[in-house]
Amino acid sequence: MVRDEDGVRAVVDPGRRMPGRGAWVHDDLACLDLAERRRALPRALRTGPLDTASVREHLEAARTSTR
Predict the structure, then answer these.
(1) Segment holding 19, helix H or strand E
(2) Do residues 29 and 63 lie in contact, with contact meaning Cβ atoms separated by under 8 Å?
(3) Can you give the pTM of this predicted structure?
(4) Which of 18, 34, 44, 57 could form a disulfide with 13 if both were Cys (CB 3.0 to 4.6 A apart)?
(5) Given 3-state DSSP classes, what are the helix, strand and coil percentages for the chain, each rounded to the nearest 5?
(6) Beta bridge partner(s), residue 37
(7) C-alpha dihedral, 32 to 38 to 54 to 51, nearest 10°
(8) pLDDT at position 67, please?
(9) Across all residues in the chain, what is the average pLDDT?
(10) Residues 6+ apart with CB under 8 A from 32
(11) Model pLDDT for residues 19-34, shown as the tens digit of each residue
(12) Are 1 and 10 contacting, i.e. CB atoms less than 8 angstroms apart?
């Protein structure tokens, strides 16, 4: 994932082509929850508070499509 141009949202970058600093999270909601609790994503992306709703939606959609 990378932060968007405004620096307030994390967006999924499956092709790893978007510009900017990126961060890796396993394809698991528990991993995203842990990263949010530890405030690891804002540190990794070198930004302030970060909206991860689009990443959560992507992980939920991936989870339901594999079932």
Answers:
(1) none
(2) yes
(3) 0.83
(4) 18
(5) 40, 10, 50
(6) none
(7) 170
(8) 65
(9) 92
(10) 25, 52, 55, 56, 59
(11) 988 999 999 999 999 9
(12) yes
